[in-house]
Structures are given as C-alpha cells and as structure tokens.
Recover the amino acids of this structure.
C-alpha cells in the first residue's frame, strides 16, 4: 500500500491540503478560502476558529477527492502565513481575539514607543529584524493591551501566544503540544537569532510573559501526532513545520548560500540563503532563520513587501477594473508603451527596503493617454519594482551578485509580470512547474524527516526560465521613475 505525505499550507487567503506520493509528486489538492475581516480603520483580521475548521475540512475533501484510503497518510508537514498573531486561552482552547494579520499595522504606536526609548537597534541586533508592527510581537502586545483580562490571565500562566503554525499544532494535538519551529519563531521579533531562544529583554519590552511562548523545535522535529479530530483511525506524525516563505525556499532547493527566491503571494517574500552564520544588513532588509534541521540552523536575508497579489485583488474588488486576475496580462500588454504611470502600493505602509509603516499609496505620472490598461499595467509593474529594490539591497548587503531568481506563487502564471521582473533585474527568472512551493517545502521536510524521501525528491520539479531582453538604458530609465515615485510617498 503506497504511503502519502500530506501538506497543509495555511496562507493569508485560504487553506490548502496537498497530497504527495512516495516520489514527492503532487497528486491532489483541495482549497478553502476564509474571510478577510477588514474594518473602517484598515485593520486586518482572521478568525482562528474558521481557519482550524477549514484545515479539517480540506483534509477530508482531499482524501475523498484523491480516492485514497485514510490509512495511506503517513506524515504531515505544515506551512503557514507568518507574523500573523494568535492569542488563545490554554484552558478553553478558544482565541481571546481574532488573529491579527501580518498586513495589519495597527500596533505602530507600540513600536513607536520602543523607538522613542532608543531601543530599535537593540531589537534589530537581537532579532535581525527592523523594529516594525509588521512582526508578531507588537501584535501580541496590542491584544494584551486592548483585550480585557488577557494580561492578568497571562500572568497566571493561562494564555498561549503563537503564529498560525502554533495554533494549528495545538489544535491538531488536542492541546498537547504548544510548539513552533525556528523559522516562525524568528519572525515574531521576540526570538534571539544568536542565542536561539526567546529573549527575556524583548519579552519584557513588549510585555509578553515567557509562559505564553511556544517550545521552539527543529523544522524537521517532533510536533506530536494528529488524527484530525478523529477523522483518521490512527494518528500520523507532524514532522515538518515551516513559515510559508521558508517552505518555498526549501522546496525550491535553495540550500546553498547565495541562492535566492521570491514567493509571489498576497505579499511577497524575497529570500537569500546566507548559510550558517547570521549577517545583519543596514540596507533595509532583515536577517532571519531559514530552518533548523537535525540541530543545524541556517540563516537567510529577507525582504518583505506588503502588497503583491494583493494589488491585483485591489484592482478587482475595490477599483472594479477587472473581473479576474487572469485579465491583467492581456491588459498590461495592451497598455500604451509610452505611458509613465507608476503605482506605489503603500496601502498599509511600505515594507522592505523602505520601512515606512505610515506611508500611503500614490498613483502618479499619469498623462492623457493613461486609461484602464495603463493603470492595470502599473499595478503589475509595482510588484516587480518592489522586488527589484529588495534584490538590490540584498546584493549590496551580502556582497554577492545574484545570478538568477527562483519564483513561485500564483502570480508567476502571469508571463508579462515574470518577463518584466527578469528585465528589471537583468537576470533569468526561473518558475517551477508547480505553484504550491510553500506546501511542497513543508511536505518535503516532513517526508525527509519520516524517512519517506531522500534528497533526490528535489529533482521532481522542473522550471521555465524567463530571460532578460530589455535594453539597459530603458531598464535604468524605468527604475529611476520608480525611485522618483517612491520619494513622493516617503516625502523625500
């Protein structure tokens, strides 16, 4: 009887269940979206209980769709949206507040307070992360400050905090395990990437009790076992956990220093493997942990942008310029080649490498020839411009020249965007023949941990290369226009 590895990819927009055979090939996938809870202040939340219910449902749907015996499931790997903050009651298992999503900048006052104390560099030195409400710590602190009774319950040891992986592991193990992996812990802004432990000074700074924190485990470690709330006759091990972008880096085979990938999702994460020693950057990109396998920790340099595919969602849901993301490629190709419209999508501030959480969006450079197609093209282009800015910062920080960019995520289907990205960077952009790299990475991690796979599994994926073709003077002119547009946003 063939054994299968199950991957769960819990992302910003929804939850996927992925089924991989003994060769590491993806054989089936099911998805469920969850609500994006956005109020008039622009705060972004998810319902953790909805996410948990959807996780159970996509697994049931997957087994039924694939037509396999439930007993053939052998191991589980989890990838998850990072930085999103969940706080729950250890006794009831219920969230005390909705999950605050990584996109949400409501906790900026908390990070401003810390900056005014002159401690921003202390935070960066310990965590490798720019002090920002983007990361989990300030979101946890916001819930502690604004939800009645939480601070007192935390002091009594009754509160658990975590990223979405911790929430899922807790529920999958019926509350037996409160764990996270190194890649997720490193994105909370509470974890010291040098000592590889929760940092007492940072916990105190953000007002979080250590008793609230998860046990940090190797990404290929033991996270307990699960029967999916009684769905399986016998539990299977949870033995692979990775933040989604880290999962994509692992799944893309970027296991050597200098190898770089971009995940195009709701936002985008650009990651470069930098090996076993952390290198801090002063160019607006952060240093974090890629994963820890068998006790060996590897680091990354990373830049995150808030609005990638979310810009396309804005075009569709808010501006009503398109009915489907699939329309954008044809619209961009039909746009007037001489139009100079730029969109800087600072809808909830700007992430790397600019780091201005108070910035607001700008559409500029419009002329009489600017119409629907030109605005749509500007929306696609801004994704590539933001990624190019991060790649440049990484090259300068690490002192290396990146030879190619590996790309994954839904927007990589857009050939216009991938070609423009290659043209802007002047290097090949390689797109694998699968979109689900986050879930693939977590499943491969679990399959390797369980002894189902060997490193040969990374040969399963094949890629298509987009080669640069834009003249150098045109590339530089376009990028200068982007830098001018960003200066408008930043007031410089």
């Amino acid at each position: 009887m063939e054994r299968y590895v199950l991957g769960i990819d819990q992302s910003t927009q929804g939850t996927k269940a992925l089924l991989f055979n003994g060769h590491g090939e993806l054989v089936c996938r099911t998805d469920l979206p969850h609500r994006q809870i956005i109020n008039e202040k622009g705060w972004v939340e998810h319902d953790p209980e909805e996410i948990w219910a959807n996780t159970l449902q996509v697994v049931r749907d997957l087994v039924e769709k694939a037509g396999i015996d439930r007993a053939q499931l052998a191991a589980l790997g989890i990838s998850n949206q990072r930085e999103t903050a969940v706080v729950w009651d250890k006794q009831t298992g219920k969230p005390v507040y909705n999950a605050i999503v990584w996109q949400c900048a409501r906790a900026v006052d908390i990070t401003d307070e810390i900056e005014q104390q002159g401690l921003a560099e202390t935070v960066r030195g310990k965590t490798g992360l720019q002090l920002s409400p983007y990361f989990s710590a300030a979101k946890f602190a916001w819930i502690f400050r604004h939800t009645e009774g939480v601070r007192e319950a935390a002091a009594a040891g009754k509160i658990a905090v975590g990223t979405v992986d911790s929430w899922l592991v807790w529920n999958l193990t019926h509350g037996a395990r409160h764990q996270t992996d190194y890649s997720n812990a490193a994105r909370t802004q509470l974890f010291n990437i040098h000592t590889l432990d929760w940092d007492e000074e940072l916990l105190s700074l953000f007002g979080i009790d250590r008793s609230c924190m998860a046990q940090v485990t190797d990404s290929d470690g033991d996270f307990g076992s699960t029967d999916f709330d009684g769905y399986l006759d016998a539990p299977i091990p949870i033995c692979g956990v990775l933040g989604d972008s880290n999962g994509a880096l692992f799944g893309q085979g970027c296991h050597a220093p200098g190898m770089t990938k971009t995940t195009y999702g709701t936002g985008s994460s650009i990651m470069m493997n930098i090996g076993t020693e952390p290198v801090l950057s002063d160019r607006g990109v952060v240093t974090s942990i890629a994963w820890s396998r068998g006790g060996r920790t590897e680091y990354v340099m990373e830049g995150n942008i808030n609005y990638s595919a979310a810009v396309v969602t804005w075009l569709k849901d808010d501006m009503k310029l398109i009915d489907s993301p699939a329309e954008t490629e044809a619209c961009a190709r039909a746009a007037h080649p001489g139009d100079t419209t730029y969109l800087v999508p600072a809808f909830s501030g700007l992430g790397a490498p600019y780091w201005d959480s108070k910035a607001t969006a700008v559409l500029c450079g419009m002329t009489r020839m600017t119409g629907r197609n030109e605005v749509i093209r500007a929306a696609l282009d801004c994704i590539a411009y933001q990624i190019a800015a991060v790649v440049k910062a990484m090259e300068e920080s690490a002192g290396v020249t990146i030879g190619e960019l590996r790309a994954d995520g839904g927007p990589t289907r857009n050939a216009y965007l991938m070609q423009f990205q290659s043209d802007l960077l002047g290097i090949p952009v390689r797109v694998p023949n699968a979109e689900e790299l986050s879930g693939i990475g977590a499943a491969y991690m679990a399959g390797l941990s369980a002894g189902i796979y060997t490193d040969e599994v990374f040969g399963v994926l094949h890629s298509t290369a987009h080669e640069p073709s834009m003249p150098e003077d045109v590339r530089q002119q376009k990028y200068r226009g982007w830098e001018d547009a960003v200066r408008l946003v930043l007031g410089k």
